[in-house]
TrEMBL record, chains A, B, C, D:
Its cofactor is FMN. Glyoxylate binds at Y24, R165, H243, R246. Its EC number is 1.1.3.15. One of its GO terms (cellular component) is peroxisomal matrix. This is (S)-2-hydroxy-acid oxidase. The keyword Oxidoreductase applies. Belongs to the FMN-dependent alpha-hydroxy acid dehydrogenase family. Residues 1-348 form the FMN hydroxy acid dehydrogenase domain. GO terms for molecular function: (S)-2-hydroxy-acid oxidase activity; FMN binding. The active site is at H243. One of its GO terms (biological process) is fatty acid alpha-oxidation. It is an enzyme of class 1 (oxidoreductase). The lineage of its organism: Eukaryota, Metazoa, Chordata, Craniata, Vertebrata. CDD domains: alpha_hydroxyacid_oxid_FMN. It comes from Melanocharis versteri.
Length: 348, 348, 348, 348
């Protein structure tokens, strides 16, 4: 079976992963409307391609918070990579470094931050944080990440409680006994009583600020009002995200929300987006609408499920090739030439 | 089979109810367009969720006409509950009281008002009235309900004649011989010649007013013009309803009509809505658009069909949990924080 | 099998008619887009039903060009009724008279005008004309119709050439040898060289006017420009029609074109519509949008195919009952109460 | 099997062509969205047909760059006609001449320009050019074409790199060994390293101008900005094209882009369109929206696959008959009567 596009990896993962793992990764909240809308919304955006521009030399590099990456696609934080591949997040870290891009490691990793760091020294990594009822546990995590050379702190804002994912309820999803949320082994046990703190508010940004010198990126913003609050509270970046449609169902597709957020932010901080990226041209659309970079979640897991580090590299390489080609066919030779003039919203 | 969401109960009821009963409950008028639109219209409403608000303590209680209920979901009036469960409306009354919410008992109950009252003393109940050609029968019913402690009188306005439900015609639907429209055993026999009075007009509100001190709620309003007339005639509440799509096909979905009615009413009376509620987030949408409370029809019957009183409680508990979760994920800690800013209409 | 709604008759006809006859009646031009759009367009119109109006006494009669009919549904001109039922147009005439409505007999009848008249003396009938290259033949037809008591002359304007109906081409459609286009046996033979005159223009209205005192109704108008021309040339009525989607594919649905035509005509002549009527509520929508009456084509043929005169009466009676019920449920007790306030166009 | 409409030829070709050839011709880039949109977009355009106009004498001829053709449909440049029929482009040339229309021969022909010319002397032909890294090879081609009597030079602007057509990747598509890109046998070998020059810009129009006196037509324009540039650089014609959806996926349908381009061009040069033409009425729509002529790609290949020269003539004849009929049914007797008043965009 030739792996030609990302849906080939999806089909592979669906076929070969244990059902309970596939269901967990695939799950959306309630009717999965938002999960699917994330993808459909890209289809409603049409390019306005320009021709006869010199695209013989293509430059697809970009920078996020000052660090250069080989192309504007990073790895979004997702949990439990050992469900996809035995080496788990260590493989993810290696693939991201090999492709010279950014990997956001999740609080819910099945490897420790130390293992992740050791697996791919020098790779560009951010750390994603869920704030715990036990604030000391969170503080310790943040400071471990900083000490290990993680270069950004991503605060997830859209999970005061876990969304209702019907298949996980039906399956009685829990980690197999030989896997652990290793970073927090002492602090809690997953899937029993939620350790996450639903009382977190904007003021806690100041608390995080007091713990670390890392840039703070807030993940889960979908409205101009919250984008304004994020900027006002001094974050360095915003990830427009609806948690892959796994939290509140029937909110906006992220690519639609991106437009609203970018407009509100007016360039004061970097804006990224995740959710629904399946082709290189989706990346081009997101950049045309103002994203500095996109992050992929499920496709990275499909790559891991296919062949671990190597499979994830395949996924990234395909996205990279497709992104370069779609840039060229749209008439852009470098990322700096990408702008809103390249796209229009279909009336359909 | 795990009962995770309301459609699980629907699937159960479809599988285990006699076809003639399932068809009767499921029926919509003509092509069933409005029945289905009631559900689809919710899908076209998108949340604008807010993040980083303290949702550690959730308060989902509300009041309708001064009575507190545990969450803004009541039981809409539907007929013939014995078709779903042997104890019929007695089970419904018990489940509603157990969940501390309001039950609107139908004129077409298969238990008497007295049986319903005795089954769940102290429960919050309203009585739904069809006006009969024999006005004395109607007067007697209203006064029995008031004497039994029912706390509201719901006048159904959209059934001068019964809608054309093709499956009922094909099935030759009628109640089995051992069931009776008990409240009216003397007054008429169902499914022969219609006893309902198609000459009822707005002036009859005054007649009802003269019969009882109960608040009058009018059910079946879909336009601003009729909402204005309702307020002008001194009703205490309006239920935006299209009778579950069982009367005039191809009218508006109730959630769409709600917007128009709420705007016309300008807070002068309480406005409720029924039709198409299938998830806790639907309740949140209805409240965001101005409903004080929603009422469920078919899902209550599915709950009864599953396990009687207990099954209906399951349905209500699922809705309650989903409503609470969707409120939290949208950034609201109490019902008073819900407002129109939470939603937008999708252009699709 | 119970005949509950018009699609029951359609299913019957599809099952029992010879394929070549079914295909001929069902045919639309090219991709059949307009044929199907005629039906879909009704679905995009939503009622705004009013409640608590006295609908105990319903009056569904109307008048067309001064003649009272029992309800605003007549029989559109369609050809070759013997393909549906042995007695052909004689059965159609009898059914229309029995239901006290108007029947527009086609030039392409398989019975003579004399046979049609004799079959149902005193029935309200109009005659539909295709203008022939042999103008004398047309003149003779018009004058025969007038002498036989037909009360209107319907000029079909949208068939300078016959549309491309792929199934008819594949089937090599032609009338079976024992059927004839009897009114024109001498003048031409169908399906060889077309006898219709593609040079007919608006000036030919004056020529028709010179032949007869009958009111002239023009059929096939879809634009405001042509509606204005029709009024300017002194016709008495307009039938908004796209020939059941059998001529130019991908023109407007007739119910959509009706709005434009009614607006242009400003009440100067009566406007009717055909195409896509499948339920009583479709009739109500057409009247709300300004039609004085609608005409049914294929459903009449299905009724004939089911049981001849009796089957067509069944179809008409169902439409009548559905129309009366939908009027009542929309809050109208008589046709004069129907108006544009009853409907709105769905944004979907 | 009767060949009644173009989709009959499509079905034939799909059934009888080798899968690798069918896939190559059918391929669209990525998800094939644009390929399919080219067709769907026509469906969203509705005619406003006019009636009672004298259409007894129909004139469907037109002129492109001064040359008369029998009707406004030419053959778009597509590659590798021997994959469809042994005689390849020689058959295409013969069919185009027989039908008195224009054939744009592709750089990627499997016959030489000399063979094409000799096959159908006197036929109206244009030559389509891909600019090579080896500019001398391109210069020689252009000058051979001019010397052979080709009357136009079509520069394809939308292929700096080849689009990603998943099926071709899966199939490992390449020409069978007995076929050659004959015009360039010395210059390159297809499907190894691309010989096309991705550095071509607008300035190269001046270079082409210096090579030949042929009118230059630019193919692949989709925006008003590029249309303005094309006019500014002195081209004689523009073909609005997205390469049949084979290059950048999710750009506009060509019929939608046509409107924008025609508006920008304001009659200064001729505008043509290709992509999605499947019926004679599509041609009418394109002309109503300002195209001087349309070109067909895949349908021509299906015709070749059916019966070579004869099959392609069948395809053209069907389009011609359908175009003539739809013109008449829309009320136009000659191409000069076609205008924007004939169409409107559906809101759906």
């Amino acid at each position: 079976m030739a792996m030609v596009c990302l849906s080939d990896f999806e089909a592979y993962a669906k076929k070969y992963l244990p059902k309970i793992a596939w269901d967990y990764f695939a799950a959306g909240a309630d009717d999965c409307t938002t999960r699917d809308e994330n993808i459909l919304a890209y289809k409603r955006i049409r390019f306005r391609p320009r021709v006869l521009r010199d695209v013989s030399v293509m430059d697809i590099r970009t920078k996020i918070l000052g660090s250069e990456i080989s192309f504007p696609v990073g790895i979004a934080p997702t949990g439990f990579h050992q469900l996809a591949w035995p080496d788990g997040e260590k493989s993810t870290a290696r693939a991201a470094r090999a492709m010279n891009t950014c990997y956001i490691a999740s609080t819910y990793s099945t490897c420790t931050l130390e293992e992740i760091s050791a697996a791919a020294p020098g790779g560009l990594r951010w750390f994603q944080l869920y704030v715990h009822r036990n604030r000391a546990a969170s503080q310790q995590l943040v400071q471990r990440a900083e000490a290990l050379g993680f270069q950004g702190l991503v605060l997830t804002a859209d999970l005061p409680y876990t969304g209702k994912r019907r298949d996980d309820v039906r399956n009685g999803f829990r980690l197999p006994p030989h896997m652990k949320v290793k970073n927090l082994e002492q602090a809690f046990e997953v899937c029993k009583m939620s350790p996450l703190d639903p009382s977190v508010t904007w003021d806690d940004i100041y608390w995080l600020r007091s713990l670390t010198r890392l840039p703070i990126i807030i993940k889960g913003i979908l409205t101009r009002e919250d984008a304004e609050l994020a900027v006002g509270h001094g974050v360095q970046g915003i990830i427009v995200s609806n948690h892959g449609g796994r939290q509140l169902d029937e909110g906006p597709a992220t690519i639609d929300a991106l437009v609203e957020v970018v407009e509100a932010v007016r360039g004061r901080v970097e804006v990224y987006v995740d959710g629904g990226i399946r082709k290189g041209s989706d990346v081009l659309k997101a950049l045309a609408l103002g994203a500095k970079c996109v992050f992929i979640g499920r496709p990275a897991l499909w790559g891991l499920a296919y062949k671990g580090e190597e499979g994830l590299q395949d996924v990234l390489r395909i996205l990279q090739d497709e992104f370069r080609l779609s840039m060229a066919l749209a008439g852009c030779a470098s990322v700096s030439e990408i702008g809103q003039h390249l796209v229009q919203f279909s009336k359909l």
